[in-house]
Design brief:
It is built from 14 helices and 2 strands, in the order ααααββαααααααααα. Strands 1-2 form a two-stranded antiparallel ribbon. The protein is mainly alpha-helical. It has helices spanning 10-31, 42-50, 57-69, 75-99, 116-120, 122-146, 151-164, 169-182, 190-220, 224-248, 250-256, 261-265, 267-287, 300-313; strands spanning 109-110, 113-114. The protein is globular. The protein has one domain: Farnesyl Diphosphate Synthase (Orthogonal Bundle), CATH 1.10.600. Strand 1 (109-110) and strand 2 (113-114) form a beta hairpin. Helix 1 packs across helix 4 (75-99), helix 3 (57-69) packs antiparallel against helix 4 and helix 8 (169-182) runs antiparallel to helix 9 (190-220).
Length: 316
């Protein structure tokens, strides 16, 4: 199948991502509580964290998946989508703030800016993370109320909460901490290391990709089987995203002794795993290539095949 489209042209697609990022930036800014007390700096720490210049990949993927299944008729669904897009960004931002803390990765900079704890202190950074996670669920509760318990929202909420928790992202973070010392022990086979590292990525990174696509699918009206396919696609996109990150960061990670799939398994093995992830993702994209985005005005093949090329070729 020929998957080349106008969106696959590198500059066109990167411009499309920048445009979608700008819209998500505005959306997230609109959802930051306006009446929060500013005394003590907590509100400023939250704003600083969630508006720190991320790529907004997760809510973009949610919107594209929503558009794949949305029939264009239910305006309420668009409002619900916006709430969940904001919610997943608050969850993602909280996870980065806590991940950067001295007790975890102890990073002073992220995306060229001081991390939240470096800018506001460790105590406020912890509280900012707690606040963003809690606020994400406040937003979803609002969606549940606005929809009068719509089953689409219940399913999306279930997916989001599970993927953000111990069976997903936080579980992956916990495994990451455990592996930092465990992988240096004698007698651990290469296959066990590979299995554990992939399990860590599956939780720490893939889970929110999966949540994004499952939420988009459910809110757009997908069946349980279709949402499952989107979960699988999200898994392989998240895996490819993290492997590409690790390949790009290999020299810096080696200098600081950071355990990643690439520093442990080697760049050749990571490149092979990246290729496998992209192939698996493509097989699902082809399965849905007949579907047209009535909401986005482009096909599933156009966006997601372009996104695969972006993951394969991105350099930062």
């Amino acid at each position: 199948m020929d998957l080349k489209t106008d969106l696959m042209k590198k500059m066109d697609f990167e411009e499309y991502l920048r445009d979608r990022k700008g819209k998500i930036d505005s959306l997230v800014a609109d959802f930051i509580p306006k009446n929060a007390a500013s005394e003590g700096g907590l509100f400023e720490a939250v704003r600083y964290s969630v508006m720190s210049g991320g790529k907004r990949i997760r809510p973009i993927l949610m919107g594209e998946t929503f558009g794949l299944f949305f029939d264009g008729k239910d305006e309420e669904a668009l409002s619900l989508l916006s709430i969940f897009q904001a919610a997943i960004e608050f969850i993602h931002s909280y996870s980065l703030v806590h991940d950067d803390l001295p007790a975890m990765d102890d990073d002073e900079f992220r995306r060229g800016k001081k991390t939240t704890h470096a800018e506001f202190g460790e105590a406020l950074a912890i509280l900012a993370g707690d606040t963003m996670l809690n606020y994400a669920y406040e937003l979803v509760a609002m969606a549940l109320g606005n929809s009068h318990g719509d089953d689409r929202v219940v399913r999306a909420f279930s997916a989001l909460s599970q993927k953000a928790g111990i069976l997903g992202m936080t579980g992956g973070q916990g495994l990451d901490i455990f592996l930092d010392g465990y992988l240096d022990k004698d007698g651990i086979s290469t296959e066990e290391k590979k299995k554990l590292l992939l399990e860590m990525i599956s939780g720490k990174t893939c889970a929110l990709f999966e949540a994004s696509m499952m939420c988009g699918a459910y809110l757009g009206g997908a069946s349980a089987g279709e949402a499952k396919d989107m979960e699988t696609l999200g898994h392989y996109l998240g895996l490819a995203f993290q492997l590409r990150d690790d390949i790009l960061d290999i020299e810096q990670d080696r200098k600081i002794g950071k355990k990643t799939y690439v520093t442990v398994m080697g760049e050749d093995e990571a490149t092979a795993a990246l290729g496998h992830s992209l192939d698996e993702a493509l097989s699902i994209i082809i399965k849905y290539s007949h579907m047209q985005h009535s909401y986005m005005q482009h096909s599933c093949t156009e966006f997601f095949s372009a996104f695969l090329s972006y993951l394969k070729e991105r350099v930062m």
